[in-house]
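Researcher: Good morning. I'm working through a list of sequences from a screen, and I'd like to move beyond sequence-only analysis. For each chain I'm collecting a predicted structure so we can compare shapes side by side. This is the next one on the list. No need for commentary yet; just the structure.
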Amino acid sequence: MNIGKVLSAGLVVWVLAGVLVLNGCKASKPKRHDMTLSGVAESIDVDNGIVTMNFFSKKQGKMVPLGGRVTAETEIYIDGKLSELDQVKQGDEIIAQGYKEGPDVVVLRIEVIRGGSEQVAVPASAPASTKPAVSTIGVGSADN
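Model: Good morning. Structure tokens for this chain:
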């Protein structure tokens, strides 16, 4: 048996074992918990980019508040038309899509339904508007 071949084979085994161990030690990203909730806008803090809505929690059997952070990527539509956060009003019926990021909720999309006669369905793939980023905060948790 050739000592060079044995050493080469041994080296390959150690390299492969090292790769497997290092890949197994990487911290895995937690899965994102996406959510879509329907409810009523309770408060809108345009300066800080925070929207709080009341939605019906099946788990709690009642209406509960949930706050979320609006970002530069958040799409906001009012009766199917692209809009801005300052146009969302307390008492508006909304559908909010977002996800949990640690204790925070990040809002991806807000649809306001005011019942105008010219409602237009807008696909979720519609381009986002260019709004400046806002500060972050999270409130509560969603439990559908």
